[in-house]
């Protein structure tokens, strides 16, 4: 039997087509990120309505007409509005990220070594034990580094959350928290503070 | 132009299902065939392929697009999973070996195809996987070497030995023999 004849013979043994359940089963097992509750147009509509209402209320409070469109005033109010929206949404986003992390079997690695499990504090904070250094609180909510009187708060931007991981540097230690599914769709900063 | 597999995988890891399904659609057929030919079981092949794709999403996944093509990585993952199952089967209560005689498999082939399947199932594991990847999936010797973690020369010699054995075992089905019967 020559090579061509053997090849022809081997080709008679055909594999069956994969069952439909292969694709469906895989889709069913796919670890989805938390589904958004609103469709995109609805979310945009809600954001615009909220922005308009906040602008009107803000202008009313400082005694200006909502129809006073002088540039300085408008910029001032837009900036107030942006701050207000951020203060409204950011804590909620930070809380939902913590909830997502809790459901994703997070593993903490300090300089590549598996560390103590993550602990959950109040107000969307999580605590990381760093051997030989102490305990650090981390949060994905933007924390001010200084108080109004100029004293440091202790919070510093230490790293990023991306995909299924949180990575940051604390002193000389590199910390990586790895989850078994995606926890954010867009990269976000992480803030850390050494606990007293 | 379509997205590169690495981009699809990155998006999949961010929880997006569509790129993951696209990745699956692009690669699952040869992987399923390979898993089925190695294990002889539709259920095992289905399980193995699903596990390999889901494994890509796990944090501990060792896939590095800078070092390996995703196709090669997935073939390697299917091979490892299939070998694990075969070992378990060998040690298990049934010790049934590869069963290419399931009703759905029998319905799919005639006597000659059945003989080929059995002849391949009878090859040593190390030769069988090389033959399946080279003949049925048309992978290059270099790719097979990467998947099986062997030298190219070792792959080549295993392939030659596998083909020599099959030539002997299947001699009765050679065209000349058929004509004389």
Give the structure's gist in a few sentences:
The complex is a heterodimer of chains A (196) and B (181). Chain A has helices at 3-10, 20-29, 40-61, 71-102; strands at 107-110, 113-114, 119-120, 126-130, 134-139, 156-162, 165-170, 173-178, 188-194.
- CA(first)-CA(last) distance of chain B: 55 Å
Shape descriptor of chain A reads flat
Order of helices and strands of chain B: HHHHHHHHHH
Helix content of chain B: over 70%
Please report which band the strand proportion of chain B falls in: under 5%, 5-15%, 15-25%, 25-35%, 35-45% or over 45%.
Answer: under 5%
Structural class by secondary-structure content of chain B: mainly alpha
Number of domains of chain B: 2
Mean pLDDT of chain B: 85
Fourth-tier CATH superfamily name of the largest domain in chain B: RNA polymerase sigma factor, region 2, helix turn helix motif
Q: What would you report as the Rg of chain B, rounded to the nearest angstrom?
A: 18 Å
Number of helices of chain B: 10
Order of helices and strands of chain A: HHHHEEEEEEEEE
Fraction in beta strands of chain A:
15-25%
Q: What Rg of chain A, in angstroms, do the CA atoms define?
A: 26 Å
Low-confidence stretches of chain A: none
Sheet with most strands of chain B: none
Decide which structural class fits the backbone of chain A.
Answer: alpha+beta
Name of the CATH architecture of the largest domain in chain B: Orthogonal Bundle
> Going across the major beta sheet of chain A, what is the strand order?
2-1-8-7-6-9-5-4-3
How many helices of chain A? The count is 4
């Amino acid at each position: 039997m020559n090579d061509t004849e053997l090849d022809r013979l081997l080709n008679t043994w055909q594999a069956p087509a994969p069952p439909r359940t292969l694709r469906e089963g895989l889709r069913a097992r796919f670890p989805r990120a938390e589904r958004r509750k609103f469709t995109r147009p609805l979310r945009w509509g809600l954001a615009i309505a909220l922005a308009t209402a906040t602008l009107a209320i803000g202008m009313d409070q400082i005694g200006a007409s909502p129809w006073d469109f002088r540039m300085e005033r408008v910029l001032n109010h837009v900036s107030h509005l942006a701050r207000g929206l951020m203060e409204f949404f950011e804590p909620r986003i930070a809380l939902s990220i913590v909830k997502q992390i809790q459901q994703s079997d997070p593993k903490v690695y300090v300089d590549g070594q598996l560390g103590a499990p993550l602990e959950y504090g109040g107000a969307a904070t999580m605590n990381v034990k760093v051997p030989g250094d102490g305990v650090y609180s981390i949060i994905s909510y933007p924390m001010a580094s200084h108080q109004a009187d100029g004293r440091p708060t202790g919070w510093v931007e230490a790293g990023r959350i991306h995909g299924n991981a949180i990575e940051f540097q604390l002193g000389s230690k590199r910390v990586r928290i790895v989850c078994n599914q995606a926890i954010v769709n867009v990269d976000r900063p992480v803030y850390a503070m050494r606990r007293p | 132009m379509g997205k590169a597999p690495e981009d699809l995988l990155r998006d999949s890891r961010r929880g997006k299902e569509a790129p993951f399904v696209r990745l699956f659609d692009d690669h699952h057929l040869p992987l399923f065939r390979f898993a089925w030919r190695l294990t002889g079981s539709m259920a095992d092949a289905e399980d193995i392929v699903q596990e390999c794709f889901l494994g890509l999403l796990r944090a501990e996944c060792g896939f590095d697009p800078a070092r390996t093509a995703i196709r090669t990585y997935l073939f390697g993952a299917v091979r490892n999973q299939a070998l694990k199952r075969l070992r378990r089967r060998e040690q298990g209560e049934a010790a049934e070996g590869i069963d290419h005689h399931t009703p759905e498999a029998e319905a799919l082939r005639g006597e000659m195809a059945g003989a080929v399947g059995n002849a391949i199932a009878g090859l040593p594991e190390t030769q069988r996987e090389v033959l399946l990847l080279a003949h049925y999936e048309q992978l290059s010797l270099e790719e097979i070497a990467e998947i099986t973690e062997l030298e190219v020369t070792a792959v080549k010699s295993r392939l030659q030995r596998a083909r020599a054995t099959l030539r002997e075992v299947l001699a009765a089905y050679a065209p000349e023999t058929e004509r004389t019967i």
